[in-house]
Amino acid sequence: MASMxxxxxxxxxxxxxxxxxxxxxxDIPLAQMLRARGMKGTFNISSRLxxxxxxxxxxxxxxxxxxxxxxxxxxxxxxxxxHGATHPFxxxxxxxxxxxxxxxxxxxxxxxxxxxxxxxxxxxxSWSDDVLETLRLCGVSxxxxxxxxxxxxxxxxxxxxxxxxxxxxxxxxxxxxKFVNGSPLATSSHAPxxxxxxxxxxxxxxxxxxxxxxxxxxxxxxxxxxxxxxxxEIRDYAEAYRSLVFAADGHMVHNPSAVKVWFEYNxxxxxxxxxxxxxxx
Length: 281
Ligand SMILES: [Zn+2]
Known about the structure:
With about 280 residues, this protein is an alpha/beta fold. The chain has two domains: about 220 residues, TIM Barrel, CATH 3.20.20; about 35 residues, no CATH class. It has eight helices and twelve strands. β5, α5 and β6 form a beta-alpha-beta unit. The protein is globular and about 65 Å long. The relative contact order is 0.19. Zinc ion binds next to loops.
């Protein structure tokens, strides 16, 4: 029986990523916590929703949008992704307005941050078949839902990217321990693991549980077998793997992508340089 599984860069078997929504002031300390541990995350924000420069929130407000002038520095080294230009229920909108929400957010964020933006999280976690089609046409490469899988599997459809769990999920630390101490090689599939945590940073203030996130990041940080990456990096790498071209009998492989790709084939680990062809047996 032939078997083939994607491996992450450097042949790694695990990846860790986080995804936080809405462009909140308390994204700043989370991004700092990630940077300090050599980790990366994705922040899903609406290009048109931010606090006016002179705005002062009433004391005790936890949902405080970042000011536009603060956003570039806040997300330095992180991935910024689409969340709808005005955070609508996308599936309720007429098609043209749905297109506008996605495209306007994408164009706005690309101008604001000076990079290509292709990731997304569904506002309110809701979608429809028409929304999925819109995302495809607007060049969105992945979109995160709010459905917890309690698993580490890569999605079959990146436009329905289900997270492992929310940071307040009662199973969070059980999953973290399994991720850190376990191995996909101990399972029958050998498919690599992606531990994916999502939430809103204002929830840390509302529940006064920043220590929960700190504990999670400390548990997962600094592991040699873990790839710490933003959502889009993992998606793009998975796409590079998917684009590998194999000979009909599997003895040769060509990598047409711009990145080195690793995989496990019949129990052995291989890597193929970008643009090159190699013989496997
Ligand atoms: Zn949101």
